[in-house]
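Discussion board: Methods & Data

I've been asked by a reviewer to show the raw model output for two of the constructs in my manuscript, not just the figures. I'm not sure how much to include, so I'm pasting the format here to get opinions. Each protein appears as its amino acid sequence followed by a line of discrete structure tokens. Is this the kind of thing reviewers expect to see in a supplement, or should I convert it first? Here is construct A:
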Amino acid sequence: MPDSEADLPALLRELDDPQWLEWPQNYDRGEIAVHFGGLVARLEGDFAARCTAEQDTQDSSEYGRVVVPGDATVCGTRIVVCVSKFGSLALVCADNPGAFLGTEEAQAEGELDGADLARVNRALVELGYVVIAEELLESDYNGPSRLPSHVQRPTWWARFFGLF
């Protein structure tokens, strides 16, 4: 677990093993499923709402997504949590990945409430996930792995959440 946001780029580099693109070497699908189920249950309890979840995404380094419905949030915009198959990395975004240039922009535009974001981040951290800002994931990828040829612009998002 990194000590600060400044340590997150180093964590991404540490998890980046060119021999294991879609999932890490010691990937345990069952363990990840249990962990993810705990996240879904926690968010449903914290927001007192049924959250939709997609999991065990095929041909992707993203394990799954949990969606907190808009009617359970202060601003009325759904919150999407994406979970990677690598190192319990998680991304939180308003509406969808890429809809805003990160959670700060979503908050500035009145689409994401700070207390809702804090509730999601707290759940993730308490469950052992590492929250990675969308801005960092959208930065240019400069690691050792060869990303698939269909990736137009290699980013850290493509490496740890993309399709293969």
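Construct B, same format:
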Amino acid sequence: MKNSMGRAASAVAGLALAGMLGATGTAQAQVQPPAPAPATSAAVAGGPSVEAPASVVAELKAATARARASLAPNARVVCYAAHVQDIGWQSTVCNGNVAGTTGQGRRMEAVLISTGGVGGVCANAHLADVGWQGWACGKDGDVVGVGTTGQSRRMEALGVQVGSGSVGAQAHVADLGWLNSTVGNPAYVGTTGQSRPMEAVRIWV
């Protein structure tokens, strides 16, 4: 009898944990979009475009080139910049640093991404009242953007794929904080079906 009660308690605890992980998991509440072909030079272009000043795009390209130059010639690099509520485009960060804000209740609305040494990048954003926006792809050194600007529309989840190897990401989400990091190709972070804005993101390759 005690063993049966113990097993039942374990099962209930397991279900509770599964429910908790489901609430704080990565973009699993809705079917994920099919991944594009690897982001190589043969699978470039298409998908959404994000309005960003030329200075922001130039800064992102320069930061990607600097980050790669400061490492080994065959280094894998990803740099990115977030568009944030009431702030606009932030400065570029690279290789796992935080883009966006935490503790301020500000939604991320868009993100620009550039890579080096990984064969290019594709990205897809899940947006309030839109759903999955569609994949945008570019070669190494190109700038790929997803999300919206000027619409006050929250980004809820992000999918990222690189041309070779894997990519890792982690999202900071309203009321949940930092979710578990995800590594794969593609990798998805954030939530869907919960109306929770992403507030910050980290990406690494």
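Answer (T.O., handling editor elsewhere):
This is acceptable in a supplement if you add a one-line summary per construct. For B, something like: The helical segments are 2-23, 54-69.
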